[in-house]
Amino acid sequence: MTLSADSDLRAQLVALDKRHVWHPYTAMDRYIRETDPLVVHCALGARLFDLDGRSYLDGNASWWVALLGHNHPRLLRCLTEQAARMTHVALAGITHEPAARLASELCAVAPTGLSRVFFSDDGSTAVEVAIKMSLQYWAQNARPERKRFIALSDAFHGDTLGVTALGGVEVFRRPFAGSLLDCVHAPAERDGYSKAFEVIEQLVRDGSDTIAACIVEPIVQGAGGMRIYQVEYLQRLRELLTRYDVFLIADEVFTGYGRTGPMWACEHAGISPDILCTAKGFTSGILPMAATLATERVFDGFRGEDSRALYYGHTYSGHPLGAAIAREVLAIYKHEQVLEKIPAKAAKITAAFDAMRALPGVVNSRSLGMIGALDLRTESEHGGYLDRAGWRVSEEARRLGAYLRPLGNVVYVTPPLNIEDTDLDDLLAIVERSVSAAYSG
Questions:
Q1: What is the pTM of this model?
Q2: What secondary structure does DSSP assign to 265-320, as a single string?
Q3: E strand or H helix at 424, and its extent?
Q4: In the prediction, which pLDDT does 382 show?
């Protein structure tokens, strides 16, 4: 796809944007003062097309959602066909085919034992549902003292107020201190996470009577810096929580749908959670939609008197357009063998990021599935999300034709799972050249 540059329109839109738009996760003073943003006109496959007339490889799949690339033709066709029949009806006490069939198909590919599906809007609300399920379950099943949660430090589980308590990235939590649920954060380590899981074990042994659930991003902590931990820790956690009858919530919002290789990151450890949250790739970025899956035991805890029901939901829960798209995503995964093609692409990412470990400015590298990440030498005292090191690389990458959004001093790629090999090769080459350029001289 080729576009002609339209400088007048571009300037108009940037002016309107800086005058009125409050951007997410953006320091607005710096943005207004310094940023000359991409103005995306359209997107196709692994590429974004700007009004400047250039295309950019979408190295982060637009915040990890476009797992099948942008504007997959089957998804666009499905959207049109479903819209012609029905765009939205409520799911409170009535149903429709897209939601009913999606729930069944989702349970068929979910980890063993997950048999009930609650639909919501995005990753944050999927985790919010899990929180409310956990708290209400214990409150009305003879364990009302179970009100605390356990999570890892540097975890990220979403942005709604309840979910903010579970997150361990302090810059995201700090403004809301004193207004959050009780959550203990175990100190995650880069050298194996051993201390974190020892802390969790001690917390559960000593205080299981007060703990509603432990939540983890299985195997990879995404927004915390693409930090990868060993399979054995997740296996030990499942055994521990089963022994003390504490719920395990698997936040697969980022890690699910093949991002780490298999359909679910839990599969690396061969475990099943009590509750699983999914979003991001659920509709491959076409529409906002999410799901929280639970075991029959959790569901049974809400049976009985009307007062025991989960009185929670969203206006667009299970909306027909999103449900139809989510079903088509599952069909595409099967028919186009999306998961089966990941290993060859993952090998390219691993080889490239292993080689980049030798570049100036690179402290460490790691990869898993369709994830590759570099830790850069920090430019601030403590590094972390506010460090500017990654943005130097991001600026170079944009000049070379790729969009990367770093996590402080962490530069990473999470491209569409079905990215063409030539595009993947180009993306990896741009990352290497961008790091080299950012630290040359």
A1: 0.96
A2: THHHHT---SEEEE-GGGGTTSS--EEEEEEHHHHHTT-SSGGGS-----TTTT-H
A3: helix 421-438
A4: 65
